[in-house]
Amino acid sequence: MILSPCTWVAKDGLRCSTMNGLHGLTLSEHLWYEDGNVILVATNQAFRVHRGVLSQHSAVFRDLFTVPQPSSALLVDGCAVVHLADDPLHLEFLLSAMYDRSYLQRIAEVASGILSLSHKYDIESFYEEAIYRLLEDYPVTFDRFRSTEQYFLEPFEAAHHAGSIFIINAARRIRTPELLELLPLAFYLCSLLDGSLLVKGVPRSNGELEKLSADDLLRCINGKEGLMKANAAATMCLGPFTESLADDCKVFETCKKALVAITQDALEADIFSACDALTNIDSWIDEKARKYALCERCAGNIRSVHRDAQKEVWDTLIDIFELREDLPTSTDLAPSGR
Fold first, then answer.
1. 142 lies in the same domain as 42
2. I want to staple 47 with a disulfide (CB 3.0 to 4.6 A). Which of 31, 233, 315, 321 is the partner?
3. Chain centroid to CA 36: how far?
4. Residue 10's pLDDT is what?
């Protein structure tokens, strides 16, 4: 069956079908309620839901349903059909959250999809909660980032953060200050991805691939060189230089020998040449300090110097990925909820 062309009533970019067929459409398995009284169509996906649920959450939908249908309008099983120019997967995420609030989860794909449509349909509570969920995994301050366990040397895996592609694309779609503020970390994480995954894209829930735009892909590729240089500078404290040792070290010669051994281990672990300039390696430093009898004063000094160097890298991400014009100003970030 193929959905026939329809006469429609325009309202805020939406249109109401006046034909009685859903030809060629895939009916949602999970969002097709027999007692539903409106059918939403996005691309080739159809969802039979309830006007009351939509109106309860969204003033945009509430206003839409006040538009009188033409007398010639034909219904599908008693339901008006509303065509939406939305990504059907994002619409599925949004509707699922309307019926089950727990669906607003930390998965970047889901949260980003809900963000895009909650912004469009003026569902402020969903927008704010989705941002909150993303901030749990994608902090916007260095201190919060560095204290987040998943960014420690163990168990950090770049592939686990491929969802940052969804965040970048969502920020490009709706450009809200809260999403734009996530861009520096999102680009940093994308730049660490395997080249094939970065170019081909990350799988979506429907089997399709989510890809970066050509411009943003280029930002990631070019940013790798900047990150390698930044990391080389940030890890200088692990080199065989006495400046890295504490001024008040009581066992200087022992710590000097220990630092040489630590440098060798860092070389073998590719710490100096890596792109992941922001990975928290405090535990690695402590492990090597114990192994080679580096005193706590010197170990603490190395940790502190490395942390300060990483903070400088964090602050320059916007330049490494050429994002200065994209980021919101302090005025944009004033507490307004949206």
1. no
2. 31
3. 33
4. 36
Amino acid letter at 316?
A: T
Gap between the terminal Cα atoms of the chain: 41
- List Cβ<8 Å contacts ≥24 apart for 174-178: 174/115, 174/116, 174/119, 174/120, 176/115, 176/119, 176/338, 177/328, 177/332, 177/333, 178/131, 178/333
Q: 10-14, 65-69, 321-325 — which one is most confidently predicted on average?
A: 321-325
Going by their DSSP bridges, the two strands 209-210 and 10-11 should be labelled as: unpaired
What pLDDT, in 10s, does the model give residues 214-271? 999 999 999 999 999 999 999 999 999 999 999 999 999 999 999 999 999 999 999 9
Measured CA to CA in angstroms, residue 199 lies from 107, 123, 193 at distances of: 21, 33, 9
Assess if residue 338 is contained within a domain.
Answer: no
Residue 67: which of 100, 125, 111, 18 has the closest Cα?
Answer: 18
Place of tokens 């000094």: 301
- CA-nearest of 232, 221, 175 to 198 is 221
Range of 64's domain? 10-86
- Where is the domain boundary, 53, 86, 119? 86
Please report the sign of the dihedral spanned by the C-alpha atoms of residue 87, residue 89, residue 94, residue 95. positive
Query: φ and ψ at 39, to 5 degrees?
Result: -115, 120
Average pLDDT on 93-111 reads 91
70 phi and psi angles, rounded to 5 deg: -65, 150
What the block records as the tokens of 320 is: 């490494």
